[in-house]
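Q&A log
Question type: sequence-to-structure
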Amino acid sequence: MPDSFDLIVIGSGPGGYVCAIRAAQLGLKTACVEKRDTLGGTCLNIGCIPSKALLQSSESFEEAAHKLADHGVVIEGVKLDLAKMQARKAEVVSANVKGVEFLFRKNKVTWLKGAGKITAPGQVEVNGETYQAKAIVIATGSDSTPLPGVEVDEKRVVTSTGALELDKVPGHLVVIGGGVIGLELGSVWKRLGAQVTVIEYLDRLIPGMDAELARQAERFFGKQGMRFRLKSKVVAAEQDAEGVTLKVEPAAGGDAEEIRADVVLLAIGRRPYVEGLGLDEVGVKRDERGRIVTDAHFATNVPGIYAIGDCIAGAMLAHKAEEEGVAVAETLAGQAGHVNYSAIPSVVYTWPEIASVGATEDELKAGGVAYKAGKFPFTANGRARAMNDTDGFVKILADAKTDKVLGAHIIGPDAGTLIAEMAMAMEFGASAEDVARTCHAHPTLNEAVKEAALAADGRALHI
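Response status: OK
Response body:
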């Protein structure tokens, strides 16, 4: 007779495995369903972790080949060993997924290996066995959004999955989509020697982030050699023995032109992955975009079934899914689980990095919110100068009357780390003055954050 559980989580990505671990810590008998041979979902296996490994390796290659000489470190004959770089990436992935497996054993979470299907409220079928559960959490994540006319084979026309596994540097990589995934993976292959062209339907990069960050990103990446075709759309892709021919039209309509590529990366976004879960059979509602509809406590319309992460509304971010996983586990254990969506940071791991938390200027203007902005450039930061990484700035947006921090936006060295301070400030309802009056060590990049907070009151010290 199969086991019964207090909670069964379907999907072992960041949201799912964190939910399972937290539930187990709180005393719930917990199982997690995963059909891959390894835990960790898209993020650890074919997403966040392997992409960051390649980003780090490609940054090291770029630094050795082009930047260290400025520091008096002269290296001659720098060569790329792509096979070794890919092998290192695989080692990083292996260590992370094995780490999740260890945590499952440590916390006594049962791994149900196979694809899960909800056959009725409180019932999950895995490999022909039906397991009972008082609660079910769906955490199945997302997959790449397809584009009509562009057929993916993960060799010449690839998604992020195939782009992480290329065994040689393409001569010309065309990226369809100027969002996070396209810019990150485009950066990897540009550093390693590819010519990179980014085609974006909108008139700007990284939609959803602050417009000033997007403009600066386009300028910085352009200086690095990336080419951009904004306000353009790909309507067809034809493969032959030599590569891929893309037919590209202006977004507003007009004559098409052809662009040749060795490899095409399709990165126009992601969509909820809910196939084979039996949602329609048990009556779980979804919205017009295929996302599972939940209430403020992550409950679906079917009692006992919950959902978190990429398969529900909101930003498709691993850390957002983790916070939701903890919140729903704590709610099921009788605690007050909660997620503050206004303080969830977003990071683009290019170089310079790009990071945001809270409202953008456009959002504040659209909402009629009176605000003040404080900005400080890294060119005026001593540590950034010492690092020879002075591109970018920190911008803090605060309420014009109360001075409460409403948003923060950074483009520059280690922006993804620096944004944590502002996420913390927003979580505790801090004002710009609170940040400004906090002593920051010298010389650090964080001083740029302090100075931006001072600038919000018109009293920056170093510009």
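Response note: Residues 4-144+271-339 form a domain with the FAD/NAD(P)-binding domain fold (CATH 3.50.50.60).
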